Recover the amino acids of this structure.
């Protein structure tokens, strides 16, 4: 057995990483410390003031382990790696795991290429970015190939192959065939690099002169081509907002939040220009200060991003800035600086990032509020209407068939007002012949709950910790697509199986629209404009859709077979005879035995089989 008190005595006064685990050996928390002894002791010391989140975490600790490092910097790197790999429950975590696109110029090649890349490597290439839109990166690369005829292929140079389609489209000068000297090609690459660095003036002037020259020579097709390229360059130039920050590469990071949620906003400034922005959601931020959450964000963000700017501007002071600068400078190969600007243009840019973070948070809160109203709020409305508390899981069933052919049942599950599609089930009716929805529903419900009880017993016999899986978990409310009849069928099945589950019918009017709920032998009207009503409608529609889709899939598999083929004694010849004599399947269903047997191909016994098939139930 792990004795926490004894193990605490063994902790060294050294830097390292500690890992808190629960009784099931799951990792609860990963942290770093410059002194493991002092840091880990603080969790178990009664005099240490702890947040509610940390108190809860400590109550779950069954044992801990630690890894010694030579320095606090090594501990920081190891902590980040472990958090990224295990994503512990009580660590403040980045919810987003995004990779951003870059533009890569392969300067190490005799004839460099301009490529799309999501990774940065220490090679002879030059990278531009990161960009927030992959589409914008591809558009820019496409524009550069049109402007400067830079190759995009990976052919070996020189090549004996004939030039590719780009050459014939005047988007490549075919260096693979030696059509352009390296020096001339290099000038085009230099212009492309200037363009990517934000120097649009020369190319705008050049394109405008070419457009005017082509127009004066009345080569209007060529003039239109230069005009379109000019428009594309202007569009790219307008997206690059000048920030006048000395031409440096900077990341501007601001964090906004409250006790429920936090959002980080990052502005990407490259060569003094704001090229994009992105926001990130943080989770497990309860009882975290802005400074603590921002510190966690910075560590996790720069552990995953391949590009490191020269300067990082922050909205708040955080701990470990010297350590972070040392870490990132080592990764970059040159100095990386952190700063919290208080005045000037840099402070204004940080303030802008902070406003954007707060805006995203406000919009998210509004979205969450609306989502809550249409989900858990709607469930609460339904519960109040029928006088039932604590509803979470609701299951609804529907039957679909064509005159009894390929009868199927559907089961859809909504948890807290949201569909849980992993728990949906579909049933092919086995024991019922003909169009008998009540009998089909009885079979479906019996199979659903019998199977659930069987699985429950099996899990309990095996002494599994969790006796409830997706199918063994029973609903808090059973919703039937109909009124008294369907509800009574469900209640009978539940009583036979010894289950006590509330059953509610979704009653429809003559126009097949929901008008109320049938519960405990009473029909209760429901406001058609309420969120509860809209949720009931969504559940009904989803159960119907799921059943119809399954029925159609079975019907398509048996497209050659008709409803009549399911009748004993009716083969292809008799089926054709019936369809020749009667106008429709409904007419066959309405026919009596004498009328059926009057058809020469139909014997008296066969007529009785056909009639029984349609009228048995």
């Amino acid at each position: 057995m792990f004795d926490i008190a004894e193990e605490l005595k063994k902790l060294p006064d050294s830097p390292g990483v500690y890992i808190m685990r629960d009784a099931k050996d799951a990792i609860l928390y990963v942290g770093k410390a410059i002194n493991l002894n002092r840091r880990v002791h603080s969790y178990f010391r009664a005099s240490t003031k702890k947040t509610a989140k940390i108190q809860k975490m400590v109550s779950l600790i069954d044992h801990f382990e630690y890894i010694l490092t030579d320095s606090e910097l090594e501990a920081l790197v190891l902590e980040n790696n472990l958090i990224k790999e295990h994503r512990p429950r009580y660590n403040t975590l980045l919810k987003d795991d995004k990779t951003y696109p870059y533009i890569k110029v392969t300067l190490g090649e005799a004839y460099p290429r301009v490529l799309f890349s999501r990774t940065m490597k220490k090679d002879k290439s030059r990278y531009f970015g990161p960009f927030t839109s992959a589409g914008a990166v591809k558009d820019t690369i496409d524009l550069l190939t049109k402007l400067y005829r830079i190759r995009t292929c990976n052919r070996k140079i020189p090549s004996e192959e004939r030039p590719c389609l780009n050459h014939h489209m005047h988007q490549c000068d075919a260096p693979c065939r030696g059509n352009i000297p390296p020096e001339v090609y290099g000038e085009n690459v230099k212009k492309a690099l200037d363009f990517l660095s934000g120097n649009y003036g020369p190319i705008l002037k050049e394109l405008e002169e070419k457009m005017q020259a082509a127009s004066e020579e009345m080569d209007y097709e060529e003039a239109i081509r230069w005009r379109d390229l000019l428009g594309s360059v202007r569009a790219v130039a307008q997206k690059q907002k000048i920030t006048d920050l000395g031409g440096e590469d900077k990341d501007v990071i601001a964090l906004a939040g409250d006790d429920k949620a936090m959002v980080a906003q990052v502005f990407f400034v490259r060569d003094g220009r704001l090229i994009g922005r992105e926001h990130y959601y943080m989770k497990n931020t309860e009882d975290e200060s802005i400074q603590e959450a921002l510190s966690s964000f910075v560590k996790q963000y720069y552990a995953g991003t391949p590009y490191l700017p020269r300067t990082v501007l922050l909205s708040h002071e955080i701990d470990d800035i010297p350590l972070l600068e040392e870490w990132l400078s080592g990764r970059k190969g040159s100095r990386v600086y952190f700063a919290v600007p208080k005045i000037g243009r840099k402070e204004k840019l940080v303030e802008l990032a902070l406003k954007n973070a707060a805006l995203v948070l406000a919009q998210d809160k509004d979205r969450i509020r609306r989502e809550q109203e249409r989900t858990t709020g709607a469930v609460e409305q339904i519960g109040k209407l029928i006088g039932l508390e604590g509803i979470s899981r609701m299951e609804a069933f529907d039957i679909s068939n064509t005159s009894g052919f390929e009868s199927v049942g559907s089961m859809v599950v909504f948890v807290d007002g949201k569909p849980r599609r992993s728990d949906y089930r579909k049933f092919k009716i086995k024991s019922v012949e003909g169009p008998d929805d009540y009998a089909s529903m009885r079979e479906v419900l019996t199979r659903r709950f019998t199977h659930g009880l069987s699985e429950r017993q099996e899990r309990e016999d095996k002494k599994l910790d969790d006796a409830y899986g997706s199918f063994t978990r029973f609903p808090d409310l059973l919703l039937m697509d109909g009124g008294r009849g369907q509800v009574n069928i469900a209640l009978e099945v539940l009583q036979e199986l010894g289950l006590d589950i509330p059953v509610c019918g979704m009653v429809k009017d003559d126009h097949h629209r929901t008008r109320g709920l049938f519960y405990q032998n009473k029909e209760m009207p429901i406001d058609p404009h309420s969120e509860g009503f809209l949720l009931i409608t969504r559940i009904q529609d989803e159960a119907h859709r799921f059943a119809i889709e399954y029925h159609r899939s079975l019907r398509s598999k048996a497209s050659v077979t008709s409803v009549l083929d399911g009748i004993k004694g009716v083969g292809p010849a008799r089926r054709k005879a019936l369809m020749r004599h009667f106008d429709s399947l409904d007419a066959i269903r309405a026919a009596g035995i004498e009328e059926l047997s009057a058809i020469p191909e139909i014997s008296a016994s066969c007529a009785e089989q056909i009639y029984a098939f349609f009228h048995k139930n």
